[in-house]
Amino acid sequence: MKIYPLRIGRTKVPFGQFYGGLHGFSLREFAADKDHFIWVPIHAYLIEHPTAGPVLVDTGISPEQVAHVDYYRGSIMEHVMDVDEYDLPADQTMPAQLARLGYRPQDIRAVIITHFHEDHVGPLNLFAHAPVYLGAAEYAAREEKVFGLVPLAYPPSIAAITDWRPIEFTGPAVGGFTGSADLFGDGSVLALPTPGHSPGSTSVLVDHRFLLTGDAMYTIRHLAVDQVRAIQTGDEGQYVDSVRRIQWLRRQFPELVILTAHDHTDYGARLVAGLADGELSDADLSWAKSYERATFDELANLNPARLPRYVPAGDGGGVGHAA
Asked: Could you tell me the pTM of the whole model?
């Protein structure tokens, strides 16, 4: 079974959003800090399943979202999100990325979304013909508002979908997870509950070889949850618990490769490049495991030399990078 990363543009985020969770970075700072931005990629994934057909995990962003004002006009989102928050070159739109692999949107047989945040469901309406799988808790919370202001699911981004498939995790335990869901009945694609970042955040285990975490982990460094932590708009206790369960899964399957939606590190870039033809070579897998050994100890504690730090832009602008 092949798995292809789809690069669907990028998003500009405060460094503290990704890395300030243990350093007092507040939601107020998240809204006000315009001097410590970093660009991070947005990735969805295409799985070529032998019987279910081509399946998407997440959908990234759409050109309409990038236009921003027209799409979000009249909603709180117009004011919460920066006008230049998203960047989407023409060759990185969802239809263009699918065409690169020989597919059209109408060829997709199913979509799995890890959670309802806008950078994961932007072009979801392209797939109104397909069933959409998501955690039952996420589906139940779709009309709730974060802090009473921002909707978990922005209605125009999901309006066309009629075939929702809420996932109940009643299947066997896997790694640190007490339940799972076998989405296609052959054990090859398992949904795992990783709540915290959102109420029903879900990760996807493919062939027991790849774990697609959505935003349950922003980058591979977030595996060290006691040293590197994103700020949370959801339940921080659940977020920490979900990462610990991923740590146990990784111990059970030592060759497991973690693929996130926004990993801007060398690790993320190398794996995305290595999966360009849908399969990871032995050399790339060996490199990934060597990188992990140099980054974490056996208990997933981070090498202090690899703690993230903000590096300002050389031209004095507001968008730097994370080292």
From this structure: 0.96
